[in-house]
Specification:
231 residues, alpha/beta, 16 strands, 18% helix, globular
């Protein structure tokens, strides 16, 4: 007895649907699963990296990742923001002048709270409208990742740093005097374009307007020293 063509067609179509359309289902399931995982991770990150607003006379950042936005600075500041007292390795901190009132004489002081910042035992400061500082804790000290001054759409005027370059004449040419007196924490020194660490047991020391390369850091004729600082 010959097969009914219509019945045979339905059987073939059902077989094709079963083989072609049912197999991709795990693929779409995996895509949805990964997408939901990314959403969950993003929401977890949002919960961990908190945005903290503050406008009192001083503020101590808690021991967690945070964006700290300083809304207002009391007249005739400075405003003191203390880095966490018991930071954990990998902790990430951003301090931002949200109100745009930071200026020389009305700074946001980022207090190191007993720990070093880039090897130095000096505090940082934000002295330009809408400026910011970014830090990462290495497990032993705070590492400065970036700093910025206000300007452009933010409306901050900012304060330009002083930049001085010294040509090294020989291995003993380690002491150099800059034109102005650097403000506390507002100095960066580089040798041949490579940043140095401040401190007697590291690469250089600062005393008033004098920068001295330590015995740990060798120099030679033809090298150049760049000093960037705020006064």
């Amino acid at each position: 007895m010959a097969n009914d063509p219509r019945k045979l067609g339905h059987q073939i179509a059902a077989s094709l649907i079963k083989r072609v359309w049912k197999k991709p289902r795990p693929f779409w399931h995996d895509i949805f699963h990964h997408w939901t995982e990314h959403v969950r991770e993003y929401m977890d990150l949002w919960e961990i990296v908190e945005v903290l607003h503050t406008s009192s006379t001083s503020y101590t950042i808690p021991d967690k990742d945070a964006f700290v936005l300083v809304d207002t600075i009391p007249l005739a500041g400075p405003y003191n923001v203390f880095l966490p007292s018991s930071p954990f390795e990998g902790q990430y901190i951003v301090v931002k002048d949200e109100g745009g009132a930071a200026a020389v004489g009305n700074e946001i002081i980022v207090n190191r709270n007993g720990r070093l910042i880039d090897g130095a035992s000096t505090n940082d400061s934000i002295d330009a409208g809408y400026g910011n500082q970014v830090y990462l804790y290495s497990g032993t000290q705070w590492l400065r990742l970036a700093e910025g001054v206000g300007g452009g759409g933010g409306g901050g005027t900012g304060t330009a740093p002083n930049v001085e370059v010294f040509d090294i004449t020989g291995s003993g040419d380690k002491t150099h005097t800059v034109a102005g007196t650097p403000a506390g924490g507002g100095i960066r020194v580089a040798l041949n374009g490579v940043g140095l660490r401040e401190g007697g047991s590291y690469d250089y020391t600062v005393s008033g307007d004098t920068v001295t390369i330590t015995a740990n850091q060798g120099v030679r004729a033809g090298d150049w020293l760049e000093v960037v600082y705020y006064t």
